[in-house]
Design the sequence.
Protein backbone atom coordinates (compact mmCIF):
# COMPACT_ATOMS: atom_id res chain seq x y z
CA UNK A 1 0.00 0.00 0.00
CA UNK A 2 1.29 3.48 -0.75
CA UNK A 3 2.59 5.38 2.27
CA UNK A 4 0.43 8.36 1.28
CA UNK A 5 -2.70 6.17 1.42
CA UNK A 6 -1.74 4.84 4.85
CA UNK A 7 -1.15 8.40 6.07
CA UNK A 8 -4.56 9.54 4.75
CA UNK A 9 -6.24 6.54 6.39
CA UNK A 10 -4.54 7.26 9.71
CA UNK A 11 -5.56 10.90 9.65
CA UNK A 12 -9.19 9.95 8.98
CA UNK A 13 -9.12 7.13 11.53
CA UNK A 14 -7.78 9.34 14.30
CA UNK A 15 -9.81 12.45 13.39
CA UNK A 16 -6.71 14.63 13.69
CA UNK A 17 -5.35 17.63 11.85
CA UNK A 18 -2.21 17.77 9.73
CA UNK A 19 -0.44 19.60 12.55
CA UNK A 20 -1.27 16.76 14.95
CA UNK A 21 0.45 14.31 12.60
CA UNK A 22 3.45 16.65 12.65
CA UNK A 23 3.29 16.52 16.46
CA UNK A 24 3.48 12.71 16.25
CA UNK A 25 6.73 13.08 14.31
CA UNK A 26 8.10 15.43 16.96
CA UNK A 27 7.16 12.89 19.67
CA UNK A 28 9.37 10.42 17.80
CA UNK A 29 12.19 13.03 17.74
CA UNK A 30 11.87 13.61 14.02
CA UNK A 31 11.84 17.23 12.88
CA UNK A 32 9.40 17.51 10.00
CA UNK A 33 9.44 20.48 7.68
CA UNK A 34 6.25 22.59 7.87
CA UNK A 35 3.72 21.66 5.21
CA UNK A 36 5.27 18.29 4.35
CA UNK A 37 2.47 16.27 5.95
CA UNK A 38 -0.16 18.41 4.20
CA UNK A 39 1.61 17.87 0.86
CA UNK A 40 1.71 14.11 1.47
CA UNK A 41 -2.03 14.06 2.18
CA UNK A 42 -2.85 15.56 -1.21
CA UNK A 43 -3.79 13.26 -4.10
CA UNK A 44 -1.28 12.50 -6.84
CA UNK A 45 -2.91 14.77 -9.41
CA UNK A 46 -3.00 17.85 -7.15
CA UNK A 47 -0.30 20.53 -7.30
CA UNK A 48 2.22 20.50 -4.42
CA UNK A 49 1.73 16.73 -3.93
CA UNK A 50 4.72 15.02 -2.31
CA UNK A 51 5.37 11.34 -1.89
CA UNK A 52 5.47 10.14 1.71
CA UNK A 53 8.81 8.49 2.46
CA UNK A 54 9.20 5.32 4.51
CA UNK A 55 11.13 7.31 7.11
CA UNK A 56 8.35 9.91 7.50
CA UNK A 57 5.60 7.30 7.85
CA UNK A 58 7.72 5.26 10.25
CA UNK A 59 8.14 8.31 12.49
CA UNK A 60 4.42 9.13 12.33
CA UNK A 61 3.64 5.56 13.41
CA UNK A 62 6.26 5.66 16.16
CA UNK A 63 4.85 8.98 17.38
CA UNK A 64 1.35 7.48 17.32
CA UNK A 65 2.57 4.69 19.61
CA UNK A 66 4.03 7.29 21.98
CA UNK A 67 0.84 9.37 21.81
CA UNK A 68 -1.45 6.43 22.59
CA UNK A 69 0.72 4.53 25.08
CA UNK A 70 3.19 7.07 26.42
CA UNK A 71 6.93 7.38 25.99
CA UNK A 72 9.22 5.54 28.37
CA UNK A 73 12.12 7.93 28.88
CA UNK A 74 14.12 5.31 30.81
CA UNK A 75 14.48 3.10 27.72
CA UNK A 76 16.73 3.84 24.78
CA UNK A 77 14.73 4.60 21.63
CA UNK A 78 14.40 1.75 19.16
CA UNK A 79 15.77 2.34 15.68
CA UNK A 80 13.05 3.40 13.26
CA UNK A 81 12.61 1.21 10.18
CA UNK A 82 14.29 2.61 7.10
CA UNK A 83 12.30 0.32 4.78
CA UNK A 84 8.64 0.07 5.70
CA UNK A 85 6.50 -2.94 4.81
CA UNK A 86 2.80 -3.56 5.32
CA UNK A 87 3.75 -6.02 8.07
CA UNK A 88 5.61 -3.31 9.99
CA UNK A 89 2.68 -0.88 9.61
CA UNK A 90 0.33 -3.57 10.91
CA UNK A 91 2.63 -4.28 13.88
CA UNK A 92 2.89 -0.57 14.78
CA UNK A 93 -0.90 -0.17 14.67
CA UNK A 94 -1.31 -3.29 16.78
CA UNK A 95 1.02 -1.84 19.42
CA UNK A 96 -0.46 1.68 19.30
CA UNK A 97 -4.06 0.51 19.74
CA UNK A 98 -3.08 -2.32 22.13
CA UNK A 99 -4.79 -4.94 19.99
CA UNK A 100 -4.76 -8.65 20.76
CA UNK A 101 -5.20 -11.43 18.20
CA UNK A 102 -8.92 -11.64 19.00
CA UNK A 103 -9.32 -7.90 18.44
CA UNK A 104 -7.58 -8.06 15.07
CA UNK A 105 -9.67 -11.06 14.04
CA UNK A 106 -12.84 -9.17 14.98
CA UNK A 107 -11.69 -6.10 13.06
CA UNK A 108 -11.00 -8.14 9.94
CA UNK A 109 -14.25 -10.07 10.36
CA UNK A 110 -16.17 -6.77 10.49
CA UNK A 111 -14.99 -6.03 6.93
CA UNK A 112 -15.63 -9.58 5.68
CA UNK A 113 -12.01 -10.70 5.68
CA UNK A 114 -11.89 -13.56 8.20
CA UNK A 115 -8.47 -14.92 9.18
CA UNK A 116 -7.47 -17.76 11.45
CA UNK A 117 -5.09 -17.20 14.36
CA UNK A 118 -2.39 -19.10 12.47
CA UNK A 119 -2.77 -16.89 9.38
CA UNK A 120 -2.72 -13.81 11.56
CA UNK A 121 0.30 -15.00 13.53
CA UNK A 122 2.23 -15.50 10.30
CA UNK A 123 1.88 -11.77 9.55
CA UNK A 124 3.64 -10.86 12.80
CA UNK A 125 6.56 -13.27 12.50
CA UNK A 126 10.10 -12.27 11.61
CA UNK A 127 10.70 -12.23 7.83
CA UNK A 128 13.29 -14.99 8.11
CA UNK A 129 10.87 -17.35 9.92
CA UNK A 130 9.68 -20.25 7.78
CA UNK A 131 5.99 -19.48 8.46
CA UNK A 132 6.28 -15.74 7.80
CA UNK A 133 3.63 -14.36 5.47
CA UNK A 134 3.79 -11.03 3.70
CA UNK A 135 0.90 -8.69 4.48
CA UNK A 136 -0.72 -7.78 1.20
CA UNK A 137 -2.26 -4.43 0.35
CA UNK A 138 -5.77 -5.85 0.58
CA UNK A 139 -5.24 -7.08 4.14
CA UNK A 140 -3.78 -3.77 5.32
CA UNK A 141 -6.44 -1.72 3.50
CA UNK A 142 -9.24 -3.80 5.02
CA UNK A 143 -7.61 -3.72 8.46
CA UNK A 144 -7.43 0.09 8.34
CA UNK A 145 -11.06 0.23 7.22
CA UNK A 146 -12.14 -2.12 10.02
CA UNK A 147 -10.09 -0.22 12.62
CA UNK A 148 -11.74 2.99 11.46
CA UNK A 149 -15.17 1.40 11.94
CA UNK A 150 -14.15 0.28 15.41
CA UNK A 151 -12.72 3.65 16.47
CA UNK A 152 -15.17 6.01 14.77
CA UNK A 153 -18.27 3.83 14.55
CA UNK A 154 -20.36 3.30 11.44
CA UNK A 155 -20.69 6.43 9.34
Sequence:
Amino acid sequence: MLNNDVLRSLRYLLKVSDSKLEDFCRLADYPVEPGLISACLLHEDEPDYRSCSDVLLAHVLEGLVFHKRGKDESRAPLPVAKRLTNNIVLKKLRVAFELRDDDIQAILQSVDLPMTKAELGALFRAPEHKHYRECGDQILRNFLRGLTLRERGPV
Q: What stands out?
A: The radius of gyration is 16 Å.
